[in-house]
């Protein structure tokens, strides 16, 4: 039987890092929470695009200084209980501190941690419509496997990454950066069948890319051989090297990016098998499930974090989360640009950056929070998404108790109570 309508305190669109943070923040603040996710699993890019690392949990520098705790740390603790080390790992390519992941264990860890806090999860479902009166959302219509049903709530969080909830709610937004450009998308590759003692020679990988580019109409722009690592606990090899420019957000452009990304990945592995020692018996174990999406829509917030906020490491009395990942822009495929965070190595995400401009009971989490073109290159990563999500969930829960309960100060106080770093 199709569901009809159900009342919640907080409804969250999206089950990536931002949505998980929001669900935990809201539930631990006493709210009854529903989370709607379009895939059959949670995790966002870590599980739907094979991004096998959490970025943004630590500052840059010689030592891994923590920037994110709270809900994000709770997820890491659940994974540690399942045998995933989750230790800080310094990328030999970028020198950034990351946390390496096991995506299948992560899926189960997220199921468990939300179930432990009583969050109602609706998988294979997406927000299809929203009803509003003046400056407030009243409900969302969800399209699921059993038809359409309505979720009524006091508060809402858009953690969809693509601003799907804000879009159907009629919030003004821009696509891409201020000039309409969309950051390049990347097809991560997982390769199996390597000889156990294979040493990855970057020069040989570069030569394989050069050979690929000579024979393919679709070029690999990361001629430095990109970013790669061995997958912990396996003999597999993970490679971030195939980028696709996105001219727009049309279904046609997404289709072409997905199809050419798969073709390129398969062709590249064939060359590795023929040319690179240790890869003779290798195979393309996985692409996707989808291409890695860095940027789509930006809904209007009450404040946009600025380039200068990041470069100065600006700290604020209304800060509700830390951002510590360097600005990382992919405006041109295969040519990332980096800028370091200034000050003490982190900047504050202010409360108004997670609050919708035109709706009083809608908050943002993850990569849909307010940020200018440059600051966006820092805030979009998953560690920071946990932190902004937890803050959004807390604000939404406080709002459900009474609109007068929500101020930057009350959100900060509750976040500290939950163990978040501010």
Automatic annotation (TrEMBL):
GO terms for molecular function: 4 iron, 4 sulfur cluster binding; metal ion binding; NAD(P)+ transhydrogenase (Si-specific) activity. It comes from the Bacteria. It is an enzyme of class 1 (oxidoreductase). Its EC number is 1.6.1.1. InterPro entries: FAD/NAD-bd_sf, HdrA-like. Keywords: 4Fe-4S, Iron, Iron-sulfur, Metal-binding, Oxidoreductase. This is Soluble pyridine nucleotide transhydrogenase. It comes from Pseudooceanicola marinus.
